[in-house]
TrEMBL record:
Entry function: Catalyzes the reversible epimerization of D-ribulose 5-phosphate to D-xylulose 5-phosphate.
Source domain of life: Bacteria
Gene assigned in the entry: rpe
Residues the record marks as active site: 36, 176
Identification of the protein by name: Ribulose-phosphate 3-epimerase
Upper classification of the organism: Bacteria, Pseudomonadati, Lentisphaerota, Lentisphaeria, Victivallales
Amino acid sequence: TDRILVSPSVLASDFGRLDEEITRAASAGADVIHLDVMDGHFVPNISFGPPVIKSIRKASGMLFDTHLMISEPMRYAKAFADAGSDHLTFHLECPEPTGDVIAAIREAGCTVGISLKPATPAEEIFPWLDRIDLVLVMTVEPGFGGQSFMADQMAKCAAIKREILRRGLHVQLEADGGIDAETVKTVAAHGANMIVAGTSVFRHRAGIETAVAELHAATA
Ligand code: DX5
Ligand code: ZN
């Protein structure tokens, strides 16, 4: 298998030292930075929005993978793109029409991902696979960092991977939630080529550098 891409979620970092935390993750070999946006409506938690992303954009040249856990991604796509996001992932479960959200994100100049909550079946993403760059399978209920990995999402992960391969598409498969140096092995074995890790990276006892190295090593 290919080398897995590690996307640390700054949700678990020290917000008072965001620049330093992101710089450390980058020098540790993180491939992408994951930015969890929550609106207190689509999920029962509020995190940060475009101004914070704009500010960290100045300090980092990394690829910004922005995860929009919000009810109105179409309304805010341009704001998140202008703030410096490279990629925008929205939720299939949000009330806006999927095709329109995809178009709005493309129009804003970002690559497009769609995320599935744990209760959403694999098949619901199949009609959209040839129009997007990434599928994000949630391995926790979106809303909070630090939750336990849901191994029951692995069949879904594998089913989506099979469909991507069957149709010969170039779509990334990312998993998010409860991923550490142990659970990452399961995730990689079920076809994901990219993982999000918050707690296991930014709250690692031995430091961010060790944490990122362990995630890469576990799937080498
Ligand atoms: C959950 C977020 C995740 C979360 C991951 O709503 O989408 O990205 O921050 O955090 P950990 O790795 O702590 O589960
Ligand atoms: Zn996320």
